[in-house]
Design brief:
This protein is α/β, with parallel strands linked by helices. The protein is built from eleven helices and 20 strands. The protein has helices spanning about 5-25, 30-35, 65-75, 90-95, 125-130, 255-265, 300-320, 400-405, 420-425, 465-470, 500-515, and strands spanning about 40-45, 75-80, 80, 135-140, 165-170, 185, 185-190, 200, 230, 235, 240, 275-280, 330-335, 375-380, 390, 395, 435-440, 445, 450-455, 480-485. Helix 6 (about 255-265) runs parallel beside helix 7 (about 300-320). It is globular, with a radius of gyration of 25 Å. The termini are far apart. Bound molecules: 2-acetamido-2-deoxy-6-O-sulfo-beta-D-galactopyranose and calcium ion.
């Protein structure tokens, strides 16, 4: 059929407008692109030492966690999500830098360690700032402060504010380490000018009593390691002199941190913000506030879980009151697996009853077995995330690249390990990682259901304090271990001898991963 001139004109015209439309689409300015990306507030609720099954929605007994269960019921409950390591400092390092901790030899730090993350490093909060976020951290830090031999009486720098946080209110290391003071934006809170604060992880300093001489002064008895300077009736690791004016009260942690966190939320409700809420609970010493004492059947450890649940409820309430709940992505998880006796006599072992903190998994904190790093993990974003359970293999290390991907921020070449799994985090995909590394005192390699554990490296010994604690299953052995989690979630049957080819294959893959640049 002959095409009439008119028809031809119409065709040409529509072709032209189609091309114009496409090129106009291509020419969308950056701000227009930005406007189309949802920029939820992000709250990372990071509990300390909370085991896979330490909350009701993951099977806890002897304690109830309605506020955490609410997030799980209305969000995504992950069943194979991991911290990058089985201890605190390494996991936090990975979360903030997007790289495995072994790359920086990150280990549990003493309370006077220098800042572990170089100020030139690209970090998660720096990346989020590029995307227009205001960033804050409240709670346990444990990534070091200053450059060595910190003077606690003047501005302490560098710290979180020098690696991307606009605001910081910290418990500098752990509750069981000195100094027992809060640090806000680089300054010890409430420290009076004449009250010189000093810290020592070597020789004894100060005139406060110590636990190994005065156990009668203690709220909870402790092992020798945790029996140095007594503050607030609790003996700690390390010695502290002066600083009375600034001492914290352990019982008040949830209220102090909640006030700082909710103030931060309220002050930033008009703009996108990232809040890293880092719990002291349920790390030792477990000294819950009176309001939570006896609220579980498991003594202080269980009561500390109830306290965590209270905090979660308060944060959600604050978001609701500020009218921003719908526009906030909450990620709830833990920095490593569970431990019962970690140095203080708080009856965690005696009162455990029917409760299994690790759920079906083997090991716990410090362990290379699954429970070392497989932790309860929930994402909640009402209106965007549909409730579901996901068995995707996830790692906290990937939060960095996932958020960067979503926010359209280019990933620096320095990020070696973090992968973009945004779709899985928000439930638009059920696929997570294909493979990953797990870090304990040795390394393990996961690929699908297979798990290979490297033997303890030549010349490396199990730390004696760990070896003395028989209940800690470090998983460290002189021979390789191989498990298939599909039929053996509890890592009981070592298949290494019957599958030498798998050992060879996985050792090679692990090495490749380590050598990645
Ligand atoms: C260990 C402590 C332990 C705990 C841990 C850090 C001893 C014997 N044990 O060295 O009590 O503080 O460090 O835990 O000192 S973490 O969750 O911050 O990694
Ligand atoms: Ca921890």
């Amino acid at each position: 059929m002959k095409i009439t001139t008119l028809k031809r004109q119409v065709i040409l015209l529509s072709l032209f407008s189609f091309v114009a439309l496409v090129s106009c689409k291509e020419k969308k300015t950056e701000t227009e692109v930005e406007r189309t990306i949802a920029k939820p507030n992000i709250i990372f609720l990071y509990v300390d030492d909370l085991g896979y099954a330490d909350v009701s929605c993951y099977g806890a007994k002897g304690v109830e966690t309605p506020n955490i269960d609410f997030l799980a019921k209305n969000g995504i409950k992950f069943t194979d999500a991991h911290s990058s390591a089985a201890t605190c400092t390494p996991s936090r390092y990975s979360f903030l830098t997007g790289n495995y901790a072994f790359r920086n030899k990150a280990v549990i730090l003493p309370g006077d360690a220098p800042l572990l993350i170089d100020t030139a490093t690209v970090t998660l909060p720096k990346m989020l700032k590029k995307a227009g976020y205001t960033t804050g951290v409240v709670g346990k830090w444990h990534l070091g402060l200053g450059v060595g031999q910190v003077d606690w009486n003047t501005k302490i720098s560098p710290g979180p504010n020098e690696i991307g946080f606009d605001y910081s209110f910290l418990l500098p290391a752990t509750g069981d380490r000195v100094p027992t003071v809060f640090v806000e934006n680089g300054y010890v809170v409430d420290l009076e000018p004449e009250d010189n604060l000093m810290v020592s992880y070597g020789a004894r300093i100060g005139d406060r009593p110590v636990g190994y001489e005065h156990p009668e002064l203690l709220k909870q008895k402790a092992d020798r390691q945790h029996s140095e300077t007594i503050i607030n009736g609790v003996s700690r690791i390390g010695y502290m002199a002066g600083g009375q004016s600034a001492e914290w009260i352990d019982e008040d942690f949830p209220y102090v941190f909640n006030k700082k966190a909710t103030d931060f939320i309220t002050a930033n409700k008009e703009n996108p913000f990232f809040l890293f809420y880092s719990f002291h609970d349920i790390h030792v010493p477990r000294i819950p506030h009176d309001n939570f004492k006896g609220k579980s059947t498991m003594g202080p450890r269980g009561d500390a879980i109830v306290q965590v649940d209270f905090v979660v409820g308060e944060i959600v309430k604050s978001l609701e009151e500020n009218g921003i709940l719908e526009n906030t992505l909450i990620i709830f998880t833990s920095d490593n697996g569970p431990v019962l006796n970690d140095g203080y006599e708080d009856q965690a072992v005696e009162l455990i009853g029917e409760h299994h903190p690790s759920g079906p998994f083997r090991g716990g904190k410090y362990s290379i077995y699954e429970a070392g790093s497989r932790v309860p993990t929930i994402t909640y974003w009402p209106g965007t995330i549909e409730p579901m359970e996901s068995n995707a293999m996830m790692n906290q290390l990937d939060i960095y690249a996932s958020l960067a991907g979503h926010l359209n921020i280019e990933l620096s070449d320095d990020i070696i390990d973090s992968e973009n799994h945004w779709k899985a985090w928000i439930g638009k995909s059920t696929k997570g990682r294909k493979a990953m590394l797990e870090e304990g005192f040795t390394l393990a390699y996961r690929e699908g259901d297979w798990k290979y554990i490297r033997p303890l490296p030549e010349g490396k010994e199990i730390p004696t304090w760990m070896e003395n604690k028989k209940e800690i299953e470090s998983g460290l052995m002189k021979v390789p271990q191989l498990f298939n989690l599909k039929d053996d979630l509890g890592e009981q049957i070592n298949l290494a001898e019957s599958h030498p080819e798998k050992i060879e294959e996985f050792e090679k893959s692990l090495k490749q991963l380590i050598d990645k640049k």
